[in-house]
TrEMBL record:
SUPFAM superfamilies: Ferritin-like
Biological processes annotated in GO: phenylacetate catabolic process
Pfam families: PaaA_PaaC (PF05138)
GO cellular component: cytosol
Domain of life, source organism: Bacteria
Name of the protein in its database record: Ring-1,2-phenylacetyl-CoA epoxidase subunit PaaA
Molecular function terms, GO-annotated: phenylacetyl-CoA 1,2-epoxidase activity
Natural source organism: Giesbergeria anulus
Length: 336
């Protein structure tokens, strides 16, 4: 069964060789050649055990993030300020449920069961994105999540459309198209508020102040402290490093903040002519790890809401299975 304890070694060169050494050399050579040629690995293909485990870990964490990610915004559906905003928000939250479905299906092609993956989430063993453990305190948070959280998610996910594992890369193409709409609707909602009253403008600024640093942490620990990066990059699962994605996100977002007319809460944020990038301040990694390890402001609430939704939905799964069994029996009778 999937476990958090699996860890691809961080002592780059030597340990990557160690992974290869325990696999049959001919199969490993064929696999490496496919990766080197930027080919795709499909479910029926041979793959090293560590590659399979890495994918199960990453894809399932990603799937969990999508379905837990429905919760902070879902809280605002009944309080959306207009019919239009409510319809957009419902569509967005439904899309996230759909992304979870594609991703659990992609993980299942690797030989794990959805029930086991969900057990790992519900028992607190599996990780999901740190960002969903923070509260949504005002309506502007819904816009900020679209603009910054979905914006960060797209930055991370576009390179995953070229991931070496076929089912994951194909799922990500569809996910990215939908995420792009999510990002735009958030930005547009904030633009409207920034053309509104002083109270609305203050609400947006307060929201961005609370989410900015958490969004930068979403990309994961700095490259030097990222145990999985070297192997993930070697296998074409990860295409761009955590720090490079974070930098791309900052560079793309600063001009958008200027158009909006809000201030990003970082006194060290300034253009560095020499690097051709924005410099930025220190991310609070202690706070990040506290949250990832289960002690953020909303971790317990998120998990208990998910467990309740899962238990409340048992009758739907039972009914779907009973219906499928009935159809199968009917088909067998007709065929006999
Ligand atoms: N939160 O060696 P590293 C979304 C963990 S939102 C929690 O760099 P890797 C959405 C990491 O799992 C985003 N944990 O790992 C948006 C590892 O722990 P384990 C979901 C994190 O895998 C709006 C440890 O730290 N996106 O989709 O090479 C609405 C060391 O990290 C985080 C994805 O999941 C974090 N932020 O790189 C709804 C994209 N960052 O496993 C939904 C796919 C790191 O050793 N995933 N950790 O216990 C990825 O691209 C990569 O897995 C990551 C991490 C960049 C996230």
């Amino acid at each position: 069964m999937y476990t958090q304890s699996f860890s691809v070694p961080d002592d780059t060169g030597q340990k990557i060789k160690a992974v290869a050494a325990i696999e049959p050399p001919e199969l490993m050579a064929k696999f490496d050649a496919r990766i080197d040629a930027d080919g795709r690995i499909e479910p029926q293909d041979w793959m090293p055990d560590a590659y399979r485990k890495t994918l199960v870990r990453q894809i399932s964490q990603h799937a969990h993030s999508e379905i837990v990610g429905m919760l902070p915004e879902g809280n605002w559906i009944s309080r959306a300020p207009s019919l239009k905003r409510k319809a957009i928000l419902i569509a967005k939250v439904q899309d996230e449920g759909g992304h979870g479905q594609y991703l659990y299906s992609a993980a299942e092609t690797l030989g794990v069961s959805r029930a086991d993956l969900l057990d790992a989430l519900h028992s607190g063993k599996a990780k999901y994105s740190s960002i969903f453990n923070y509260p949504t305190l005002n309506w502007a948070d819904v816009g900020t999540i679209g603009w910054l959280v979905d914006g960060a998610a797209i930055m991370n996910q576009v390179p995953l459309c070229r991931c070496s594992y076929g089912p994951y890369s194909r799922a990500m193409i569809r996910v990215c198209k939908e995420e792009s709409f999510h990002q735009r609707q958030g930005y547009e909602a904030l633009l409207v508020m920034m053309r509104g009253t002083d109270e609305q403008k203050a609400m947006v600024q307060d929201s961005v102040n609370r989410w900015w640093w958490k969004c930068l942490a979403m990309f994961g620990p700095p490259d030097a402290d990222s145990p999985h990066s070297a192997q993930g990059m070697r296998w074409g699962i990860k295409r761009v490093s955590n720090d490079d994605l974070r930098q791309k996100f900052i560079d793309a977002t600063v001009p958008q903040a200027k158009v909006l007319g809000i201030t990003l809460p970082d006194p060290d944020l300034k253009w560095n002519e020499e690097r051709g990038h924005y410099d930025y301040g220190q991310i609070d990694w202690d706070e990040f790890w506290t949250t990832v390890n289960g002690n953020g402001p909303c971790n317990k609430e998120r998990l208990s809401t998910r467990v309740k939704a899962h238990n409340d939905g048992q009758w739907v799964r039972d009914a779907a299975l009973a219906h499928a069994r009935k159809q199968q029996q009917r088909a067998m009778k007709e065929a006999a």
